[in-house]
Write a structure and sequence with these properties.
Layout lengths: L8 H6 L6 H6 L4 H31 L23 H37 L7 H20 L22 H4 L3 H30 L12 H32 L13 H35 L6 H14 L15 H13 L1 H15 L11
Length: about 375
């Protein structure tokens, strides 16, 4: 006769998690908790960015009219509640910065990579749990620093979220000194957070997949997040280097981007967009991976052309590195160079169209269920 072992009450009690609240939910190394922390952070900055956008819309709709609650703002921003032009520039700059760096990136990468990669790879946790915790707790002070720039003398950065030089490189042009420096410093710190996360995601996918989970059995969201992490690992250092050069121009008198002393304002554009175009795919590739999985699930059939979708993700990521000049067509570049950037940009349409075709083919003759995600 077979017997079933019943765990002793003391053994069951031993499984209870006795960690204090701070250790369990605040300074946690659990990938799910860290994913939820990134979620709350990104939702907070989505709210901040949305408030800034609504304030900008008010000014555009009723220029010169006092803002609702505008009298609560300092005189340097809105005297008698009427927005100053300098404050409007700051709103445009900070709205773009918050939405891209502090809302969408943490939401699409920080949240979903942390939550999904170990679960979909069959790993117990991330490869480096403590580094994972540090990646979140490095992003928080970066956000606080960016928020603090509103309250320094001269206000926050006002040179646009792209921070084009020489406008951003010298206070005499924008009227902003400390705020622009805090902007640079905040994004450098946030870059370290992104790099720590990317190293973790890449290592987890490569080394901690379940036995038998070969590369071409990986779920498409994992593929998308894996390729996105490689883009982050390669693109963020470019931005960090450019930001440090810009910070040096503002603080210690270097002239990397100031033309009066032989600097090159176009150098900033090249460095920024060499980061900025891969950034576009850092923001969209995870969503493409999620769409592939959701459509297959909603159509109740396997995704059409799995390998083609994986190769399309890789092709989009690769081509994203050679098209940055299409952000600079007004910069006076050689027409032949502009043509190469134009052609390479058009070529990206091919893997993008493959993905769209495969999504349509996945839905074709599927048993479609219109759930909320669908």
């Amino acid at each position: 006769m077979s017997t079933v072992a019943i765990p002793h009450a003391a053994e069951v009690h031993a499984l209870h998690d006795d960690r204090p609240f701070l250790r369990k939910y605040i300074f946690s190394t659990d990938h799910k908790i860290i994913g939820i922390q990134f979620l709350f952070m990104s939702l907070f900055f989505l709210l901040v960015g949305g408030i800034l956008a609504m304030t900008m819309r008010w000014q555009l709709a009723w220029p010169g009219r006092p803002l609702p609650f505008g009298r609560l703002l300092p005189e340097t921003m809105a005297p008698d509640g009427v927005m100053l032009p300098e404050f409007y520039n700051a709103l445009v700059t900070m709205h773009g910065t918050f939405m891209i760096f502090f809302a969408i990136m943490p939401l699409l990468v920080g949240v979903f990579a942390n939550y999904l990669i170990p679960l979909m790879c069959g790993a117990p946790d991330m490869a480096f749990p403590r580094l994972n915790m540090m990646s979140f707790w490095t992003a928080v002070p970066a956000g606080i620093l960016m928020l603090a720039s509103f309250f320094v003398e001269g206000g926050s950065a006002g040179a646009g979220w792209t921070a084009y030089a020489p406008l951003s490189a010298s206070p005499e042009y924008s009227g902003v000194s400390t705020g622009q420096q805090l902007w640079c410093l905040s994004l450098v710190i946030l870059g370290f957070s992104s790099l720590m996360g990317a190293v973790n995601y890449i290592t987890t996918v490569i080394n901690m997949r379940a036995p038998g989970l070969t590369w071409f059995r990986l779920p498409l969201p994992v593929w998308a997040l894996f390729i996105t992490s490689i883009l982050i690992l390669l693109a963020i250092p470019i931005l960090a280097g450019a930001l440090i050069m810009l910070l040096f121009d503002q603080t210690i008198g270097t002239t990397f981007f100031l033309p009066q002393q032989g600097g090159q304002p176009l150098l900033w554009q090249h460095l920024f967009w060499f980061f900025g175009h891969p950034e576009v795919y850092i923001l969209i590739l995870p969503a493409m991976g999620f769409a592939s999985e959701i459509l297959a699930n909603g159509a109740r059939k396997p995704v059409f052309g799995y390998r083609a979708l994986v190769l399309a993700i890789c092709a989009i990521a690769f081509l994203g590195w050679i098209v940055w000049g299409h952000h600079m067509f007004q910069s006076g570049m050689n027409p032949m160079l502009g043509t190469t950037f134009m052609v390479s940009t058009i070529v990206i349409a091919v893997p993008s169209a493959i993905k769209t075709f495969n999504w349509l083919a996945t839905l074709w003759k599927g048993n479609i269920h219109f759930t909320v995600p669908m």
